[in-house]
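Hello support,

Our group uses your service weekly, and this is the first time we've seen a run hang past the timeout. The protein is BEN domain-containing protein. I'm not sure whether the cause is the sequence or the server load. Input pasted verbatim:
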Amino acid sequence: MHALAGSTVTVSKRAFLRLHRSHMTLICQELAALVFTKEVLVLSTLTGKVGPPKRQLDVAKVQATTDAVIQEFPQTSASDVRAVIRRKCNNEQFNQKKGT
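Update from on-call engineer: The timeout came from a worker crash unrelated to the input. Re-ran successfully.
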């Protein structure tokens, strides 16, 4: 297992090493899929306050994901990473509604 950015959040070391590191959005989306299950992404938002009440994503996991992405792409801001995680949740919710 690999600890993300020195946190207690861990992911498979093999999967972590296989993440696409060509662009911040790619590594962020793939890392979010490793840290959170598809079901959690579908049923949650970053804050838990959008539309019909949803669960808030685990704050420690969001922070570990953010820190790991910023380690790989130091020019990236935390708000940019959070925007990608938010989009990942939205995409998973859309895909579930579509039936995929």
